[in-house]
Amino acid sequence: MARYRDGLKQATCLLEAAAWHYAVKVSCGCGHFALFDPHVLFWRFHCRGWPDDFRAVRAKMWCRACRQSLGQKVRPRRLDLIQPYPRDMITLTQPDEREWKRILNRYRG
């Protein structure tokens, strides 16, 4: 369910970020960051049966650069939403258009 800050809606899960077209920026304490397309990130979590709220998303992600240098998984420090879409986002497999519309209708319904 969306939160409100200063009268504006704020997404609390990946489905809301995807429905409202916000890119997801994941930042590590070391300074590295990655930008994800919210549709594919939601689809990945949905297909695996993982919860899509931002606390659960943060617990599933880790910094690849820190993993290579330190040899252990380092969880991201921040998850931010960015609009408009940047061009250099990480994209994975897209959901089928029919399936995506079914999910959105269930969300809005």
UniProtKB/TrEMBL annotation:
Name of the protein: Uncharacterized protein
Top-level taxon in the UniProt lineage: Bacteria
